[in-house]
Amino acid sequence: MAILPGSWAIIIANVLTPLAVLVFSSGFFPYKPLVSGLARFEDGSNSTTVPKAFDKVIFMVIDALRSDFVYSNDSGFFFTQSLIRSGAALPFTAYAGSPTVTMPRLKAITTGSIPSFLDVILNIAESDTSSTLIYQDTWLAQLKARGEHLVMYGDDTWLKLFPGMFERADGTTSFFVSDFSEVDNNVTRHIPNELLRNDWSAFIMHYLGLDHIGHKTGPHSPYMVTKHYEMDTIVNNIYTSMEQEEHLQSTLFVLCGDHGMNDAGNHGGSSVGETSPALLFISPKFQALKSSRQSPTDSHSDFQYYRTVEQTDITPTLAGLLGFPIPLNSLGVFVPELLGMWKLNDLYPELESALFRFLKLAQRVMSSAASDYNLSNLLLGLFITFLVVLLSFPTTYTLLSNSGHAGTFYALSILCYGAMMFASSYVEEEQQFWNWAFTAWAFYLHVKTYYLDQLIPSIKEYSIGNRTSQLLQTLSRFAGDKEAEIEIICNTNHQEFVTSVNQLLRIREGTVSLTSEILDLNQSIQASTEKLAEQKRALVESRSHRQNIDETFRAIQDCLEVLRLANQVHDLLAKKNHYAALRALEELQNVHLKGVTQYKIADMIQRSVPTSQKAIAEAVMSDLNTWLYRIREMSQYLGEIALYHTDLRKTRQKGRAEKSPYLGQFKLNSAIELVSDESEEYDLLQNEELQVDFTPLFECLHIHRSLGHMDRFRIEYANTRRRQKELLIPTSITLIDEDGASLHNLLEEMAGFAIVERSTMKRVDELWDSMCQMAVILISKALHEVDNAESLLKIKNLIALFMQTMNTWDFHVGVFDDFLLTLFKKYAELLEKRFSDDFQEIVSTDDYMPMPIQTIEEFDKVLNVSWYNPEKPREEQAFPCVLPFSQMYPLCCIDIRNFLNQFYFFANDDFSHSSVIDETLRDALDELLSSKVCDTLVERLSSQYLGQIVQILINLEHFELACRELEQLLAAARSQNVSGDVVTLNATDKFKSNKKAAEKRIFEVVNSKIDDLIETAEYDWMASVPPAEPSNYMQTLTRFLSNIMNSTLLGLPTEIKELIYFDALSHAANMILALPLSAEVKKINPNGVLALAKDVEYLYQFVDSLGVPILRENLDELQQTVQLMQADNTDEFYDISTRNKKYGRVDAIHGPILLEKIIRTVQSPVKTDKFTTLSSRFGKKS
């Protein structure tokens, strides 16, 4: 069959159509080059990296979260808005470029690059795997590369984009748009467990419920705000966990939407609602940036709230905050508001601003390049398409013209579909278009089929083979046959037709006669009607008069009711029934006056209503002032009852703690204490002793609220109570009156006043704080009167009782808590002064003798108060006995214990500054022991009485032991508050160091006595006869040493006694050796040497009798020197080997000197002057 020219045009058009599509697609879907691999920090360039600000990230995506859903006044994100106000959340509007569907937006969020329109198709294909980002550089891939774990719950698009990326995951499909709840519950159910786990670095959630609500019912649906609340609760739970869980302390919380939605709830296009999702960076750390903002804000038609950033900026911002390299394909810019997380002082503000502008400009240029379309291919594709339209237009027009209704429908479909291409959200509009188009076409086919079922087969039969003329002849023959059938039917029924016509004529005649009868009847009725009308007119007139009378009667009744109510208002006001008067006035104004507004009386009464309202308000205020005066008078009694019952609660709590020590750790007003004392609950305001009736106040409140004068009433009431507060606080008080009545009255009146305020107006913080400050100032001014620690302790206990009472009523007592520190300082000063005098008197009046004990009872008393460990057990102790220390030591120990107890009396459970007491007590005790005990004992070391000095040394020894015991005692006392703390007293080292001074003083006294004894030595170095016995001075010296060893030094430790003896003997030996070495001694004969040797031997025997071998070493030099002086062969001394054996301790200088003085002959006795020896002692020459 030959091909017509029109067919050639159709063939060419069909060939060009796919070519046009390919050319246009190559321009519309350009190739986007991507950099492969993962970004890394350059080696050796540590200066370009900064420490990460966060260790973890919680990334919460709420699908279609438009910015106004979070930031506007219509939002249900109340907690999130509170985070914005506190500065813990930094809000932005993130621009999401088209296409605004989930997959391309997730690509932009994770890679920082610009997605393509091809992703719209891939987003719809649920089974698609070609759009994976597993091989691209994303912030998820960076975290994975660091060996960290990621978890994800929500939209399964993440699982298609990042297969195998997540340690744990639970995906939900996004195409069941009728599901508003379960799709989100499947995400929320995982949150509690994940927040408790510490094995992930990124926790991703993607909620779809809000997007589904938008698709089904639009952004203004009643379901939308409920979903806001649900999402805000999840934000609240996550933020609370970030504050409480230790492993979440360094966690960044990102809340964002992948796109927005238009007013129809759809998305995919580029309208302002679709491209404006919310973005928030949340963390408690952001509060340090001090960047709080107002939230919520007024609605914006352009949805641009706060500052607008690019959605691609999320990627570099996460990279900086989490410390990994920015992905290679990212075009985003770090959000500058978060630079405050690091202290960067390198850039000037101008340079930083310029750099930011450059980055944003570069971002725009690179973004446009990333989505650069091939315009030449686009234009060529459009040109080919236009050519296809021209080629196919004639044939298409002919077909449509001949197609009738079907062609018209097809043409309209093409035009509508073409117009729909300009819709903002193409995906939803296209679906809706084809839905309605298909429905309309099906309806058209249904209607058309009923009429053409018989005609179509015939037309089809004759149209084959061009038999149109035969078809027309057949149709004409069909029409003629139908006309013949009609004529036969008419001829068959002719007789019946004639009969029917006759019957109709007879009926017509009867109708005419009936008509004349009806006319007559009508005239009769008209006459009757006229009479009836006249009667009706008269009746109407009579009814009108009666109605006027009735209306007048009702008006009078209404006016009388108005007057009755007006009088009732005044009667009720006179009876002080104010609320009933106000209700009657409201009923009069709102009900009864509206029925008589047309009468003058209504206007008169309406003008009097404000005056009546004012009279009611003034009357109720007058009653209130009277009530306030009575309350003012009973405030002190109310406060007294409150303090009394708080004291009873303390007593009951103490009793419960004694029965069950576990309850002792709970303070007054704690939950456990309140539950334990629940059976003893006492109503302060309604009890047998006192009943406070708040009716006047509540009536006044209700009346002013009804009148709309609530603000004015609050001001007047606050001013009245403020004046009463000023009257309550006196100009001065005294703290030294009997039973502290002045302070009692002040605190009781304050307590009663505040309790009444708390029971009525609830918010009384400002008034209460002012009252507390004034009271503290008054007490502080009177504090100088108190010079007694016991009185000050009573004042403190009263204030503490007052604080606990007010804590019961939820009042802040921080001012009094701070004032207790001032009281404590004063208390410590008074205690220190009193005990300082006591210590001074004890030390100065001591007899410095060992303490005698007569009975075991006395012994036990001393042990109970002193830090002393006796050498013998108590059972083996014999009485009477003597303790090593003097009586000052146990007396000081008693005072020390009393001093500690007095201090800790202040530190009971109602004093919260126990650490201050610990430090002050340590310093005060240190000062007393150092200055009043130790220094006084050291001053008495100047005594020449050896026994007293020895006793001081013994006392110092025991005081050092007591200080060490006190250190442990103080550490144990403070261990409840400061674990592991070590207490050190300076007095410990001071006592220890002054023991050395006492020992040195003993050495000095003993050596001085030895010097005095040796000075009495009278050696006759040229004696003519040998001595018969040791010298007198030597015998006196040994007796002195024996006495101090067995009596004076008896109480000293053995090592100290031996040290004193060692030093004394060494000093004695040196002094004896110095006698023959004296320059006055010129010669020494054998008898003189013998006398010296006898004394040395006597001293040596005395040392042996002591039983301390080490003491003999002190006499070795003296003994060997005497042996040298008695030696027959003195030359041995000059032989070094012999000298080292026999005379090794002899001084190499002293030996020769003495040998030169030795003579071997003895002169005969001659008569000498009896003063010769004496003169020689004093250096006189004969």
Q: Can you characterise this structure?
A:
The structure is a single chain. The protein has 6 domains: 5-22 and 376-439, no CATH class; 64-343, 3-Layer(aba) Sandwich (Alkaline Phosphatase, subunit A); 505-606; 617-811, no CATH class; 827-999, Tetracycline Repressor, domain 2 (Orthogonal Bundle), CATH 1.10.357.30; 1016-1154, Up-down Bundle (Methane Monooxygenase Hydroxylase, Chain G, domain 1), CATH 1.20.58. Helix content is 62%, strand content 4%. The strands form 2 sheets. Strands 4-3-5-1-6-7-2-8 form an 8-stranded mixed sheet, sandwiched between helices. A two-stranded antiparallel ribbon has the order 9-10. Strand 3 (150-155), helix 7 (157-161) and strand 4 form a beta-alpha-beta unit. Helix 10 (209-217) packs antiparallel against helix 11 (222-244), helix 27 (789-808) packs antiparallel against helix 28 and helix 32 runs antiparallel to helix 33. It is elongated. The termini are far apart. Residues 122-130 and 1167-1182 have low confidence and may be disordered. This is GPI ethanolamine phosphate transferase 2.
